[in-house]
Design brief:
Length: 438
């Protein structure tokens, strides 16, 4: 049997279906603050009921069971809606009614969203809903962006073996955001994956409550890179593999300062960023090279305090774990304000894409065209690259959502048709891929 957790959205079209489900979770999370048990509290607030079904139960039957359970739990009204459906909280895509639980990729402990839509009550003034997935927005690196950056840029490097840190980044994101302050733009490398692939990585690595709520926030659609990719990124940054795990600060172009780290804790991050902030703020802004010299001194001082630990290094009892990774597309998690941009060569991105989607030859060619285009903006290249990755994931599944995939290809077509340097070959490839869809 498969036990599924059901979140309920009930109301008219505005109340129940006008914004991503993750927006509701983001609002609720904001109200909870940073309590130690906030993920458990959030899960308790968002989950209306549970149902147990077999893998052969179809979504239509599951919808009826979920609605019945929600009513019995006193969460749903007894009034039938004009439309009722189940959707995936990570994508907001409705499940196909004739699809079975197994075919839909639902696993024991997964969260599903039951929406009961009633007739409109009246007119509304709209306000923007939070975009929880946008917190982890993808952006490709550009040299122009690096030249514009005024904050101290840094990179936390870790691999897919460092689940504790990858989880810590997500569950303590707002605290890390505050801690890094106005002085730093700190990023970590992760790669976007198809949701079905990503959930297999995260399912057994998080507590059930974290898994369900981070799913709804769409913060689990990326996974850390493997060790080979981690070492590749380290080489690109000029950091020896022996230095991993580490925080790399890159204040001025080629200058870099490497701080080896140990196990994950907020105390360690406070210790590290407190020391670095004090170092930078004490530098004379009018003194040429003042910050550079002080960072170099801080690097030596902090290294001298490190002692060997079971995994990496320990910082006088306050520890932090960090590594790196590399497969598929580049993902940047930004701790503060604007997204930090990290560079990976086009050929590396293409190789990673091929490794993740070995049958997507045409899409690989399309991705290269997009990344090499001189007439698309950085944002356009990033958006289209993500869409190509999503299309490839759908095709890899063997049972692509035709409507969703056509919509994604149409969005790609709209963008690439504006770039004269790639429009003709790109549109030809898109037409070919469309022919593959049922």
């Amino acid at each position: 049997m498969t036990r599924l957790f059901v979140a309920l959205r009930e109301g008219d079209a505005v109340e129940a279906a006008s914004s991503p489900f993750g927006a509701e979770v983001a609002f609720a999370m904001e109200r909870l603050g940073t309590a130690d048990d906030r993920w458990q509290q959030l899960d308790g607030a968002m989950v209306a009921c549970t149902v147990e079904v077999s893998g052969t139960t179809n979504i239509r039957e599951l919808t009826v069971l979920a609605l019945t359970a929600a009513r019995e739990a006193g969460q749903a009204s007894g009034v039938d809606g004009i439309r009722t459906w189940l959707s995936d909280p990570a994508t907001d895509e409705p499940f196909a009614e004739d699809e079975t639980v197994s075919a839909a990729g639902l696993l024991d402990g997964d969260l599903v969203v039951l929406t009961v839509q009633h007739p409109m009550k009246g007119m509304y003034d709209f306000i923007p809903a939070p975009d929880p997935a946008g917190v982890f927005a993808q952006l490709q690196y550009s040299d122009r962006a690096r030249r514009r950056a005024r904050k101290i840029r840094g990179v936390l490097l870790y691999t897919d073996a460092d689940v504790e840190l990858a989880t810590f980044v997500r569950t303590h994101f707002d605290e890390l955001n505050t801690l890094s302050g106005e002085l730093f733009q700190i990023s970590v490398f992760e790669r976007p994956r198809s949701w079905r692939t990503a959930k297999r990585y995260w399912k057994d690595r998080l507590s059930p409550e974290e898994y369900r709520m981070l799913t709804a926030l769409r913060w689990l659609k990326w996974t850390p890179y493997d060790k080979l990719g981690a070492y590749e990124v380290a080489r690109e940054l000029g950091v020896p593999a022996s230095e991993l795990p580490c925080l790399v600060l890159l204040p001025y172009g080629r200058d870099k300062y490497v701080f080896p780290l140990g196990a994950t804790s907020m105390a360690a991050f406070r210790r590290l960023f407190g020391e670095l902030s004090a170092t930078i703020e004490s530098a004379d802004p009018d003194e040429s090279g003042g910050i550079v010299r002080r960072l170099a001194a801080a690097e030596q001082r902090l290294r001298a305090e490190l002692v060997p630990a079971a995994r990496g290094y320990e910082f006088n009892g306050a520890t932090v774990v960090i590594h790196t990774g590399g497969q598929a597309m580049t993902e940047n998690f930004n701790f503060h304000g604007q997204t930090t941009f990290i560079n990976r060569p086009v050929n590396t991105v293409i190789t990673d894409f091929q490794n993740s989607h070995p049958t997507g030859t045409d899409l690989t060619t399309l991705l290269r065209l997009v990344l090499d285009s001189e007439q698309l903006t950085d944002d356009q290249r990033e958006q289209v690259a993500q869409l190509i990755n999503e299309v490839a994931g759908e095709l890899d599944s063997g049972t692509p959502d035709t409507i969703k995939t056509r919509r994604q290809l149409d969005r790609i077509k709209t963008t690439v048709s504006k770039a004269a340097d790639i429009a003709t070959p790109a549109l030809t490839i898109i037409a070919k891929v469309l022919e593959l869809l049922p």
